[in-house]
Write a structure and sequence with these properties.
The protein is of the alpha/beta class and 304 residues long. The chain has 10 helices and 18 strands. The strands form 4 sheets. Strands 6-5-4-3-2-1-18 form a 7-stranded mixed sheet. A 7-stranded mixed sheet has the order 7-8-9-14-15-16-17, covered by helices on one side. Strands 10-13 form a two-stranded antiparallel ribbon. Strand 11 and strand 12 form a beta hairpin.
Length: 304
């Protein structure tokens, strides 16, 4: 099975602490890296966990609060020192280009690569990127400013070849792509060998949903239905529900309720308020509603 994993670089919320870095994650799909949010210090974490700048070509920014984007200009400037030449694409809500283009023009003159900024519509569920391996869709969130989550959908792959049957029928290599694409095989004497004797089904495509920052939003349920992993912010406990509502954030119970309603396989919670020295209280609250919940922390890698 091809790689599909999420590495946590930061999981704190807006108030800086010595325990957590601000929001940043890296999604590795088929050994291509995609970054989601880029809080302060993200490039330090990127190097600490031995991730490759050369394999990072796309960065997705959920919204323009500083704890989700203050690390962006530093992370952009460093690869040029390493001789990078591949283009870098950044996706996020307006006024992303208005804010960051002047910084690029001032701090990143003479870079060895080009940066392209793509502004997204945070009010719609839309395809904003795809390649041979993955599609990336926006997820409309509800926060104090325009904010979008992201849905990473692995594309289906071809069936797997049964090597024993290939050897048995002495099938030439140039026929294998057609068989993987679903064709039957015809032997030299005209015998038709059914495709299902020569192949076995590929693994089901995997899906990762990232939802931060947002208040409880029932509209998400249909968009993330039965995804393999949901990351959902859990800034507060239910005892601070009034504060969550005031700041358009979610409680751990809110996150778990969305996971339960969407029938996801696993829930990961993060974006913790600094008021909780022990985030296990958030984990316990979420697990009361959705038992298959994990607490994220810097350095954690979740494999799908």
């Amino acid at each position: 099975m091809e790689t599909f994993e999420i590495s946590i670089l930061g999981c704190g919320s807006a108030l800086p602490t010595t325990k957590h870095f601000n929001s940043a994650q890296v999604v590795n799909i088929h050994n291509k890296l995609f970054m989601i949010d880029c809080g302060e210090g993200a490039q330090i974490q990127f190097r600490k966990y031995k991730l490759s700048f050369a394999r990072l070509n796309h960065i997705f920014i959920s919204h323009l609060h500083g704890d989700h984007c203050f690390g962006l200009i530093g992370l952009i400037s460093t690869p040029s020192l390493l001789g990078r030449t591949a283009d870098l694409h950044i996706y996020g809500p307006a006024p992303l280009k208005e804010i960051f283009q002047p910084q690029l023009d001032f701090f990143c003159k003479g870079m060895t690569f080009s940066v392209f900024i793509h502004e997204i519509n945070t009010k719609e569920h839309a395809l904003i990127f795809e390649d041979r391996s993955v599609e990336v869709w926006t997820l409309p969130l509800m926060h104090r400013m325009p904010c979008s989550g992201f849905l990473f959908k692995e594309k289906p792959v071809l069936s797997h070849i049964r090597k024993d049957m290939i050897d048995f029928y002495h099938i030439p290599h140039y026929k294998i792509p057609l068989i993987k694409a679903g064709k039957d095989y015809v032997t030299e004497d005209g015998t038709i060998v059914a495709n299902n004797r020569l192949t076995f089904p590929a693994d089901k495509p995997r899906v990762y949903a990232y939802c931060s920052d947002t208040c409880y939003r029932n509209e998400l349920v249909e968009l993330i239905k039965e995804c393999d992993l949901l990351f959902h912010e859990a800034t507060f406990m239910e005892t601070h529900k009034a504060r969550a509502n005031e700041t358009f954030h979610s409680t751990a119970k809110d996150a778990a309720t969305i996971a339960l309603q969407a029938n996801v396989k696993q829930l990961a919670i993060g974006h913790f308020s600094a008021r909780y020295p022990n985030e296990n209280v958030l984990l316990e609250e979420a697990q009361d509603t959705f038992p298959n919940t994990v607490l994220v922390e810097e350095g954690l890698t979740i494999k799908i």
